[in-house]
Design goal:
CATH class of the largest domain: Alpha Beta
Number of domains: 2
CATH superfamily of the largest domain: Ribokinase
Structural class: alpha/beta
Shape: elongated
Helix content: 25-40%
CATH architecture of the largest domain: 3-Layer(aba) Sandwich
Largest sheet: 10 strands, mixed
Strand order of the largest sheet: 8-17-16-15-14-13-12-9-10-11
Length: 460
């Protein structure tokens, strides 16, 4: 089993195409099924601890994987039974069934077991009928542990829909076969999957869309100074406290210098510099990145300040209110890097509702705006027109005022570094923000979140 960090994410169609390429290269369906079954059996052995096992098999190759796993578990002396919804229909699944020496029970009448292995339907899922949903709910409710093969049965690999039984009884572990799918990282299916691990089948996979992994962050050297670490300029507006939060986050996540432009309140740490708003000063070459949006407001002054920045050449992070004051065409016309950080409502206001999954939507929006889009949510997605990095399993305690301002400041600090790759900077900012939330714990303030970034940056 392989952890998900850094692993490619493929749609159902892309997975089938990868399997076909593997077969053309000399692998057989039976060989892929054997490898999958071995991985399932190995995982089940870790979980079973001598408990009874029920393998629920469907008619397709996912069921075939289940038959292989059951045969291997029986050979290891495990107490394993097989229940099927219908006989196998593919040649590989039929062959796997013939190697299972035990009886095959009817799934509808099967007695439950402590460990339920759900190998009914996988990536080629179909909607469950009411009887199948009720049967799986009954077996899952009685199980101590649930192991889902590829996906909880009835889940859609691409849209991430999940059936009632799986949402009521999430898997303990889901084993993604060959590659991760959108349903492993997008809700509601991701919630039904529980922990997710990959069984490597040796499939060729394009990593344009992948789960995020720990970033490589720049470190200061002997000749570093505040500007080589990155200067962040933050344009303030109606609610300066939000900009100050962003400034604290920028400093604690690595920036060497943070200045607030237009903040007369003089609040926040003494390390933050307060300046009057000056459009010309914001064009200074030593500024590595400009952040606008936290607490900005949506009045004429706010719009004018954003318009001036869009006409400039400094890398730009646009957050919060500022996302309501522009449009994809204006953003696309800009030559310098732009990072947008919308939540779902801001995203819809700026881009409408593009088709497809959240991953598709983020990539389409990035292409439309010629920008990097950080689409925030239970799963946060970082996308440009060519790439997408996914940060699954968001922390629900981030649903507090100011957490988005902290994220914007964290991204701005990464973007401000002189050697920053804008896409990697946005991805790193999201990663640091998530780790800070883990350190802050539960029921934290955004101030706590910003302060936790020092510890995260020190250990990264």
């Amino acid at each position: 089993m392989i952890a998900c960090a850094g692993q490619p994410i493929l749609t159902a169609e892309q997975t089938r195409a990868a399997e076909e390429r593997a077969i053309r290269a000399g692998r057989s369906v039976e060989a892929l099924m054997q490898r999958a079954g071995e991985g399932i059996a190995a995982a089940a052995l870790r979980f079973a601890a001598g408990q009874a096992i029920l393998v629920a098999c469907g008619p397709g190759n996912n069921g075939g994987d289940g038959y292989v796993a059951a045969t291997l578990l029986a050979a290891k002396g495990q107490r394993v039974r097989v229940a099927a919804s219908s006989p196998p229909r593919t040649a590989a699944a039929m062959a796997a069934r013939t190697r299972w020496a035990g009886p095959v029970e009817s799934l509808e009448t099967a007695a439950p077991a402590a460990l339920l292995i759900d190998a009914l339907f996988g990536t080629g899922a179909r909607p469950l009928d009411p009887v199948q949903d009720a049967t799986l709910a009954r077996l899952a409710a009685a199980a101590r542990l649930i192991l889902a093969v590829d996906l909880p049965s009835g889940s859609d690999a691409d849209t991430a829909s999940a059936p009632d039984w799986a949402q009521a009884h999430p898997a303990t572990l889901t084993l993604a076969l060959g590659a991760l799918k959108p349903a492993h990282v997008l809700h509601p299916a991701a919630g039904a999957c529980g922990a997710v691990r990959l069984i490597d089948l040796g499939l060729p996979a394009d990593a344009a869309v992948a789960v995020a992994s720990a970033p490589q962050l720049p470190e200061p050297g002997p000749t570093s100074h505040k500007y080589t670490r990155g200067m962040v300029a933050i344009v303030t507006g109606a609610m300066a406290g939000a900009a100050r939060l962003a400034g604290i986050a920028a400093l604690r996540s690595g920036a060497g210098y943070v200045a607030l432009y237009g903040d007369a309140g003089q609040g926040g740490p003494a390390a933050i510099v307060h300046r009057d708003y000056d459009a010309e000063a914001l064009a200074e070459s030593r500024i590595g990145a400009v952040l606008i949006g936290p607490g900005l407001g949506r009045d004429t002054q706010a719009r004018d300040r954003l318009t001036a920045l869009l006409a400039g050449d400094r890398p730009l992070v646009i957050d919060g209110d500022a996302l309501h004051l522009t449009d994809p065409g204006s953003l696309r016309a800009r030559r310098a890097p732009v990072v947008l950080t919308p939540h779902a409502g801001e995203f819809q206001a700026l881009f409408g509702t593009p088709a497809g999954s959240l991953l598709d939507q983020a990539r389409a929006a990035a292409a439309a705006a010629g920008a990097i889009v950080v689409l925030k949510g239970a799963t946060t997605t970082v996308a440009d027109a060519a790439r997408c990095r996914v940060h699954p399993h968001g922390n629900p305690w981030l649903s507090t005022a100011g957490s988005g301002d902290v994220l914007a400041g964290t991204i701005a600090a990464q973007l401000a570094h002189p050697r920053a790759d804008p896409f990697a900077a946005a991805d790193a900012g999201v990663w640091l923000h998530a780790r800070a939330a883990a350190i802050a714990g539960r029921s934290f303030l955004a101030d706590d979140l910003a302060n936790a970034l020092t510890a995260v940056r020190a250990s990264a």
